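Lab notebook, bench 4. The sequencing result for the construct came back, and we need a structural model before the next group meeting so we can plan mutations. Quick request posted to the team channel:

Model the 3D structure of this chain.
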Amino acid sequence: MYEPAPNEEELAAFGLTAEDVAADPVDIWPDNVAAFQIFSFMGTQWRVGGMGGATGLDYNVMYRKMDRLSLSPADYDDLEADLRIMEAAALDCMHQKT
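Done. Here's the predicted structure in token form:
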């Protein structure tokens, strides 16, 4: 999601084609749909600082989007926790040195 797909030349270096590495669709469990939808919406809402790249999501935008879902307090807290886990995983991916 946060890394570009290999181009044809990069694939060819390993004797592969785009069809060889095409991914199957991913099923999202019903309990994770809201977190996935908000995280996808937040794709352009990363806070970026200096040369270090992304530092995290803009929570002001995230909370505004979550507020529109009319969640119970417990569901709101669960969704926030899910989004923080996804944020941490995305940051780890974005900051990996290759």
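DSSP finds five helices and two strands in the chain.
Will bring this to the meeting.
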